[in-house]
Amino acid sequence: MPVGPEATATRRRKAFAEQELRLISALVLILGAGLFFALPFVLSIGSVVFLPVVTALVMTIMLSPLADKLAAWGLPNTLASLIALLTFVAILLLALLLILQPAVDLFDRVPAMAEKVAQRFSEFQSEYSWFTLTAERLAMLTGQTTGREVVLASPSVIQQLAFATPSVVLETLLTLLMTFFMIESRVRMRRHLLLDRVSFGTSIKAARVVREMQDRVAAYIFTVALINGCIGVIVTLGAWALGVQAPVMWGGLAALLNFIPYIGPLLMTAILALFGIGTAETAFLGIIPAVAYLGLHAVESNLITPSILGARFTMNPVLILIALSYFSWVWGVFGALLSVPILLMLTAVFDHVGKPNLVGFVFGEPLFPANAFELDEDEPASGLPQAA
Is the pLDDT of residue 44 over 70? Predict the structure, then answer.
């Protein structure tokens, strides 16, 4: 069947448009990969600027529902924003005081505990001296010799704290100020985001993204905080029952470290094991608190937390570990605490905009779905958030 010149031209234009779209998608992938690998260096070098901004953004998303609730009760917007921020700061300071005060008292006992731990390991090594002798013989056979170790003097902990305190105080004040002004201007920011769009469908899409980010981050942090608070209470009661000193400190430390997925519980287990071995009469008795906490964490992470959070907050563990290592590399401990909220915000955006089809793109499929930015017809305006 002969094909007319108009159909041939249309087919050529369609093929050219597909090739152009694929070329643009490839450029987007290259730019995204370059940004992914270059961004940590920029964020790390400029952490004084970027870390307060990201922290303030996460805190704003987390505290905005509380400020909206207070404003709905008739409080002025400025006062509601200030009360929401002060409530969070008071809870954080109370938790830190419960942990830091007993920790300072136990700090003087760290050298004695370290010496006792070394003694335990020397006793364990003497019981398995044949293993050490075998290792020495293997080292002699392979020609490896133990050279003289050179240890460079480093600043003490007190000196490091003295140098770090001014910058920490400055960044903390900057973060709190930015958080207050972001919470106070949340209504204007929502209106600007929604009403200044070119099309109504884009406004609805933006509204849904904002609402989903706020709901996910706030609900996740609130739910996980309740679960971790219960974990802290159980650890406190368990430490008190086992006769461990400063049980409130151990409960608070367990609650805070449980905010860091995977790494936090492992670190808590290691701390309990070292502390127990360094203070108990025998190594078997010293390892009991760590084993008990590990069992508690296994029940909480596999049964309690999944049943409460449900499928809405279920994320790929590989993505969590990537986000944890990525932001820990950039911002250290603060990056580890912010990794899951940032990942929740990104997943909320991708759920509405569309996830990139990386595997399908290799085989010729589009990178993003064609209707990623189109408005669903069955939900015309339900995504608009209520302005306070």
Answer: yes
